[in-house]
């Protein structure tokens, strides 16, 4: 099923209903305003530049509102009750914005007319928008039941559990296109013709089959092995859900989605609501672009000091593991002498002789992290999130704390709860101790918590307690 096609339906419908609702509102307010002297007829009023500009621009305003509401994030897994609530709240919020920015400047015959304006605009906009959305959603759900559209999934597991889950999922619009064996001990119970025995061809088959989701329903892995196996699936860049049972203890804090009574954990999702995700992503880009511009003089000064302090490049680049296990290059102002890791990856310490004199100053005030605003602008990182680590150390961490992989469901950050509460880690054991703070963040993510962490970070920078 093409997720973007479904999103496109809602986007086009929302634009049309917003334009129609605003046009109907213009018809109403024409009869309740002290109209401009230049206008004597309804036709002239509707073609007046100010009115015409609003007719063209208002639908785009509603697109912005719906984007930040998170409505378009989950076009195929949203209930009709949730749709009603999102449409109601976003319509009310948008109407208030329009009223206090545009409508309140109008001159009605009586002040009571303002109340009529709000009621008419809200009722018209919400009514038209919700009715069309409901029709699209109802038609989509009906198509699911009839088997005209479906979500294509691959199930990892070939035992009785996989077969049972497949039957329940297929009854609600899912189509299983293949089963992938996970362990040798699992007794095969699924249709043999759908089993993908050649593991080397799995990536190609997933790509060719236009798969929508990956479902893990194996009976052959304990909790530690399961967490490590799930991490290997991130490379497919598909939503991953896993059967939850008593062995899935590391995943007890992640989101559950009941699909026809089947408890499935959405491994690749986090606890941010769709609205919070969009607001955070927008804020990340705006703040990072602003900081890169405003702090440009400081960047030039630090670059000069780094170059004067010791020979070598100004910017230090290193591969880290980011969202959904994807590697990226992180940027920092160089704080160590060139060749500091000739013997292999090493964690830094407070008394580390590899750190340059000015590098100590930068670390104390976290100035070496400033180039990471570019990482945020690119989308590799966020302002707040678990600090990204190198694969070399991740492989060691997961041996003792396999739940570390959960943090890859969140875009890594310049600062984190672990950094402000624990600080730099000099050993793998200290990294695991700091990990506990990041798990707390993962379980309680919210925009309010992000703001609190940013405040703590500013305090850390100003007081020079970065080391």
How would you describe this structure to a colleague?
51% of the residues lie in helices and 11% in strands. By secondary structure, it is an alpha/beta fold. It folds into three domains: 3-146, no CATH class; 151-266, Rossmann fold (3-Layer(aba) Sandwich); 274-463, no CATH class. It has a six-stranded mixed sheet, with helices on one face. It is flat and about 85 Å long.
> What's the number of structural domains?
3
Hey, roughly how much beta strand do the residues contain?
A: 5-15%
Q: State the order of secondary-structure elements, H for helix, E for strand.
A: HHHHHEHEHEHEEEHHEEHHEHEHHH
Please provide the count of β strands: 10
Q: How helical, in percent, are the residues?
A: 40-55%
**Poorly predicted residue ranges:** none
Mean model confidence by pLDDT: 85
**Oligomeric state, counting identical vs distinct chains:** single chain
In spatial order, strands of the major sheet run 2-1-3-4-6-5
**How many distinct helices?**
16
Principal-axes geometry comes out as flat
Query: How far apart lie the N and C ends?
Result: 51 Å
| Largest sheet, strands/sense/barrel | 6 strands, mixed
The gyration radius over C-alpha positions equals 27 Å
Secondary structure class reads alpha/beta
């Amino acid at each position: 099923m093409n997720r973007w096609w479904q999103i496109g339906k809602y986007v086009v419908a929302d634009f049309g209903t917003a334009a129609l609702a605003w046009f109907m509102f213009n018809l109403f307010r024409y009869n309740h305003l002290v109209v401009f002297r230049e206008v004597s007829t309804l036709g002239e009023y509707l073609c007046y530049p100010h009115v015409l500009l609003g007719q063209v621009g208002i639908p785009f305003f509603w697109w912005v509102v719906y984007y930040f509401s998170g409505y378009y994030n989950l076009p195929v897994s949203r209930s009709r009750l949730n749709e009603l609530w999102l449409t109601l709240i976003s319509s009310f919020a948008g109407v208030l914005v329009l009223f206090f920015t545009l409508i309140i400047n109008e001159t009605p015959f009586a002040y009571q007319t303002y109340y009529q304006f709000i009621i008419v605009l809200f009722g018209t906009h919400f009514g038209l928008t919700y009715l069309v959305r409901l029709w699209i959603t109802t038609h989509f759900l009906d198509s699911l039941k009839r088997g005209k559209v479906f979500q294509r999934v691959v199930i990892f597991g070939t035992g009785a559990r996989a077969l049972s889950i497949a039957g329940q999922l297929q009854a609600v619009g899912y189509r299983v296109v293949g089963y992938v064996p996970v362990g040798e001990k699992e007794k095969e119970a699924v249709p043999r013709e759908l089993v993908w025995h050649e593991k080397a061809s799995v990536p190609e088959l997933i790509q060719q089959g236009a798969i929508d989701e990956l479902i893990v329903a194996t009976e052959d892995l304990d909790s530690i092995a399961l967490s490590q196996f799930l991490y290997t699936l991130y490379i497919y860049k598909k939503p991953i859900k896993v059967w939850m049972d008593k062995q899935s203890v590391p995943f007890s804090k992640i989101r559950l989605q009941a699909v026809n009574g089947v408890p499935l954990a959405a491994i690749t999702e986090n606890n941010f609501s769709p609205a919070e995700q969009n607001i955070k992503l927008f804020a990340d880009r705006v703040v990072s672009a602003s900081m890169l511009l405003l702090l440009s003089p400081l960047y030039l000064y630090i670059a000069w000091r780094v170059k004067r302090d010791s020979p070598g490049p100004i910017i230090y680049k290193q591969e880290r593991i980011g969202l959904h296990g994807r590697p990226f290059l992180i940027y920092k102002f160089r704080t160590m002498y060139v060749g500091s890791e000739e013997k292999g990856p090493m964690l830094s310490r407070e008394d580390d002789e590899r750190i340059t004199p000015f590098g100590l100053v930068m670390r104390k005030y976290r100035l070496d992290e400033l180039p990471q605003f570019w990482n945020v602008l690119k989308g590799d990182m966020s302002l707040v999130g678990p600090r990204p680590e190198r694969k070399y150390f991740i492989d060691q961490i997961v041996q003792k704390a396999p739940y570390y992989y959960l943090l890859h469901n969140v875009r890594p950050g310049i600062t984190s709860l672990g950094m402000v509460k624990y600080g730099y880690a000099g050993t793998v054991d200290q990294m695991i101790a700091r990990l506990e703070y990041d798990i707390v963040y993962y379980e309680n993510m919210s925009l309010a918590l992000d703001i609190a962490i940013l405040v703590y970070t500013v305090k850390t920078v100003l007081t020079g307690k970065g080391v």
